[in-house]
Amino acid sequence: MHITTSIKPAWHAFWTLRKHHPGPWWMRPAIASGLATLAWAALGLLGLTDMLTIETRDPDFMRRLVIGVFLLFQSIAWTMLALVRAVEWLLSAERLAALSPVRDWRAAVAVGAMLVAGIMAGNLVGSGVLAMVYPGSELSGASVLRRQIRFLQFLPFLAVVHGIFWRLRLQRHALQAQAAEAQLRLLHGQIEPHFLFNTLATIESLLAYDPARGREMLEAFSDHLRSSLSQLRGPDATLDAELAMVTTYLRLLHIRMGQRLVFTVDASIEARAARMPSLLLQPLVENAIRHGLEPKVGGGSVRIDARVEQGRLVIRVVDDGLGLEVPSRCARTGAGMALENIRARLHHRYGEGASLALALEASAGSGGTRATLDLPYHSTP
Predict the structure, then answer these.
(1) 133-154 pLDDT per residue, tens
(2) 242: helix, coil or strand?
(3) Which of 36, 37, 144, 241 could make an S-S bridge to 73, C-beta 3.0–4.6 Å?
(4) From CA 63, how far away is CA 79, in angstroms rounded?
(5) Which helix (DSSP H) or strand (DSSP E) does residue 345 occupy?
(6) What is the pLDDT of residues 267-296, one digit of tens each?
(7) Residue 125 near residue 79 (C-beta atoms within 8 A)
(8) Phi and psi of 368, rounded to 5°?
(9) β partners of residue 344
(10) Residue 183 exposed, middle or buried by CB count within 10 Å (0-12, 13-18, 19+)
């Protein structure tokens, strides 16, 4: 069961450059050997007719050929894996993240160059293995140079295949990103009516016995609708626009919850100019309120902090609510879906170059949660 659950993440991670890969250490060599075996079997099926027509005085030629090609393919696969692992070990995490985005043509060129180098180096290693297994046979010796020249002749064809594969991967990546965006808007559309009706009911009630608070909430509600509609028009926004929408949302909740909610927003001018996916920040604030502060009898506070640190945009949403380990939080729906949606959007947009992390907030004393968004920094032109 453990092996079954480890195969899928290991398979997906096999095609990306990263410092640490999920699953046991032997999973990547097993995948590489499996792919080499499939290529060897496919080549055998394609060339079976020609191989059967070969005339030779050596009755063991077919056996040596089949085993030799199998060893050659395995050597190429393991050499390519070793080369990729060496690149992952030598390059920094930032450089690897830069090679991860599918839509970057430089990543395609770099990966293609590593594949070519791995195949040529693997051919040399495989030739050495064949020379030890079958010394003096036609599978080793001068045939090494012929195989290298033949591979170089196929480079234009391999480049076309690699380009087609990368384009198909790009199209799949774009479809997955569109699905994540559509899921976000569907989720937002499911939650928003409840929030709208509850807010309108609260405004109606306040206008009856506290007109001043009712008018204040109506103004905040109008500001929130205006900022929300502008955020729904496109997939990207500035952090300043995201903070404006979140601030109006918190103002509405502050009027409704009173002293049970205190909030602060602290963002540098440089951070406010950053470009980021829209509707990325509000779900974190909603989770902090709904699953941290609202169930808490005395309420609490929410703090939003945004800074540019070493060329990256770091946003922290901190609350002093019930914390991560309270069982009632796990029973509530919506939090896990929203967080998974955010992580999926980050992966489709930035690959390994962005992250969302949840942790207990030690400074909160009795509890609390800290959600940290770490994104590449791109400022508004």
Answers:
(1) 877 665 555 566 776 776 677 6
(2) helix
(3) 36
(4) 24
(5) helix 335-350
(6) 999 999 999 888 888 889 988 888 888 888
(7) yes
(8) 125, 160
(9) none
(10) middle
